[in-house]
Structures are given as structure tokens and as C-alpha cells.
Specification:
- 42% of the residues lie in helices and 0% in strands.
- It is mainly alpha-helical.
- It has one domain.
- Helix 4 packs parallel to helix 5.
- The longest helix is centred in the middle third of the chain and has 20 residues.
- It starts with 42 loop residues before the first helix and ends in an 8-residue tail after the last helix.
Length: 191
């Protein structure tokens, strides 16, 4: 869905609502630092979805889908965009910032925290976590981050019953360099 001429769009081409979060002077809030880690300017907040303390990613997305009247096809595409946008809001988009890589390592319980981006990527490549679970954990620290002991357990959780795709992130969006790519793992053929 392309934005009309008078609408603003996010970096994924999805229209943003008008006057989502206005400041005291009436202007619309914009994150000043693309490397910032302010989840309040994440995908859902930009679209007027207010997150409660117990809301997880999937419940927020379901509310957004209803609010915007998304078709099944739109839901799948926009859900993946929302995952990417939430990760960008959490860790930023500047993959040259060591402190953001270290923050991600700390979030997934890597100790000691590596001292270079290369070391961070190498350490992250050995961790089995699910992106949606990580987003939920960052949003609410009472949500336990699940660190899987291996591939089999990771796949079982991520694929689930294979119908809802609630925990799967598509390959085509994974090709973008960044924090998401460091955490993605291949699933069995067909997913």
C-alpha cells in the first residue's frame, strides 16, 4: 500500500497516521538519532497503538491489523516490517556503533561482552533466540528471554504448529545487513 501524496511513510513505505505524537509546539515527534534505543518511537507507537505493560508483539500487531483493516496478505507483510522496525527502534540502524552491538549481546546474555563488532557478531552467531521473544523481552523485562540450547528446540518454538507464522521472519527481509541478520537462523526447508 503506497502512501498518498499528503501522507508520510516510514522507511518501509507504509503510511504513517497524521499527528501521531505531537509535541507541545504541535510538530510531530521524530527520533533524532537513528542509533537511539527508544522503543517508544517504535512501529506501534508511531501508528497510535499504545502498549500496556503486558502487551506482547503479537497482541499489539493484532490490534494494529484490526485498526487498519489489513487483509491476510497485508498482515503477513506488515508483520515482518513491524519486526524489523521494532528491532531498529531498539538498537538503531547504525551497525557501526559498537555500543549497540554490545547492548544486543547483553540483552541475549552473552558474557563477557565482546569488545569489537566482529567479536559481537561471532558471539551472536552461537546464540539461539527468537526475534519476537527478544522484542517482547526488551519491551517488558518480566517476559523471559528464551535462549534455546540448540537448533531442534529453536525450530520447534519458532515454527510452532506451522500455521500462524507467529515467530518466523522471512529470508527476503533478512538480507538487509544489521542487527536482525546477526540473530537469524535457517529453518528447515519449506519455512
Amino acid at each position: 500500500m503506497a502512501p498518498r501524496n499528503h501522507e508520510r511513510a516510514d522507511e518501509y513505505g507504509v503510511p504513517l497516521p497524521i499527528d501521531v505524537a505531537a509535541s507541545s509546539d504541535g510538530s510531530t515527534f521524530q527520533a533524532s538519532d537513528p542509533g537511539s534505543s527508544n522503543t517508544e518511537v517504535g512501529y506501534f507507537a508511531q501508528r497510535g497503538i499504545v502498549a500496556g505493560p503486558s502487551d506482547d508483539f503479537n497482541s499489539l500487531f493484532k490490534r494494529l491489523a484490526i485498526q487498519e483493516g489489513m487483509s491476510k496478505t497485508q498482515r503477513r507483510k506488515r508483520r515482518n516490517q513491524a519486526i524489523a522496525a521494532e528491532m531498529d527502534a531498539a538498537y538503531g540502524t547504525d551497525v557501526t556503533k559498537l555500543e549497540k552491538w554490545q547492548e544486543l549481546c547483553r540483552d541475549v546474555k552473552i558474557e563477557p561482552v565482546p569488545q569489537s563488532i566482529t567479536q559481537c557478531k561471532k558471539a551472536l552467531s552461537k546464540v539461539w533466540i527468537n526475534l519476537v521473544n527478544l522484542i517482547d523481552h526488551r519491551r517488558n523485562r518480566n517476559v523471559q528471554l528464551i535462549i534455546f540450547p540448540g537448533y531442534k528446540q529453536f525450530c520447534k518454538y519458532t515454527i510452532g504448529d506451522g500455521k500462524a507464522y507467529d515467530h518466523i521472519f522471512p529470508k527476503e527481509l533478512a538480507k538487509k545487513e544489521g542487527f536482525i541478520r546477526a540473530l537469524l537462523r535457517k529453518l528447515p526447508q519449506g519455512y
